[in-house]
Every structure is written in C-alpha cells, then in structure tokens.
# Entry
Amino acid sequence: LIISADEYLRWNGDNATRVGLRSQLGDTGSVYVREQFGTRDGGFVATTIVGASDRFGANQAGKTYGEYQLENSVSGPRERAIFGLGHRWQVTRGLRVGVGYEHQQMFGGYSPDGEPLGDRLRDVVHARAELVRFDNLKASARTELRWDNTDTSETLQIVSGLGVDAKLSRDRKSTRLNSSHNDIYRMPSSA
# Structure
C-alpha cells in the first residue's frame, strides 16, 4: 500500500492538494483512490477519483488506465469517466518517445449563467519525448490534440508543453518546472 500527497500550483493562481492510496494488483497492475481539493477559476473544487492501471509489453513500456471522477464545485456536481492507452519506446540511451490516446465522457455541471452543460466528450491524442541524461534530471516535451464535443459545439485544442524534473534522490521528485501553450479552434456548430 502506497500513501501519496501532492500539491499543484498553476501560473494563473489555481491550485490543488491531492492525497491518495495505491495498491498493487498482481505484477503489473494497481488500483487507486484519491481525494483532490483546490481552486479553479476562483471557486472551490473537490474531486474523488477511483481508478486502476496496468502495464504491458516489453519492459512494461505500455500502459492502460481507467478512472471515474466525482467532482463538486461552484458549477455543480459533475461526473467524468476516463480510459486511456499509451506506449513509450527507448530510442537510444537517454532518449524516449511515446504516444497515447485518452477518451473522457463528462456528465452534469452548469455554466456561469445557470444553464445545464449536458453531456460532453473529449478525445485526446498525444506524443511526447523525454531526454534523460543524468539520474537526477529529465527534460520533456509534449503535444496534445484535444477534440471536445458538446451538445452545442465542437472545439479543437492543440496543447504543447515543456518540462524539467529534478530529483534530490532516486525515489523523490523535488522540483518540476513546466511551461505550456494552448491554441483553441472553435468549429461551426453542425446544428
């Protein structure tokens, strides 16, 4: 059984504190439960997360996962089901690349004017590269293509980011610096 606690701070002032439990299922799988509290867009958000993941393939470089999230915020109660699949390859010593896919389905919630949001779908395709030249330092780049589909609109987002992880020891992450860029393209409604 592993107990974890994380704190996330974003440049826009949003933050989240997450505590959780994780337990192994066999040699390659695990199940987890997390509670996350924080602020988003100036309002309080509490989310309960229950999920499972499994590793597959040579060197366990592939991963599948699924989780269910129950969120309460100023936008009302919201539920989210997520499943994903990814794989990572070692190109050469110190260089890894990976690709993946994630599907999300959201239910509930309200817009700021009080209108119900309805059901929403999100599909994400992502690619990443990681450069690990030293045991305690990793640089990474990631690009995502997100397609959001609601009852009234479709949105395409391209999100890219750079990050650096520095570790004080093999087991602990001490510092993570990230920078990201987001381009949003709204598509005409098909209605």
Notes: The longest strand covers residues 76-92. The chain has a mean pLDDT of 83. Residues 24 and 30 are 4 Å apart (CA to CA). The chain is about 0% helix and 75% strand.
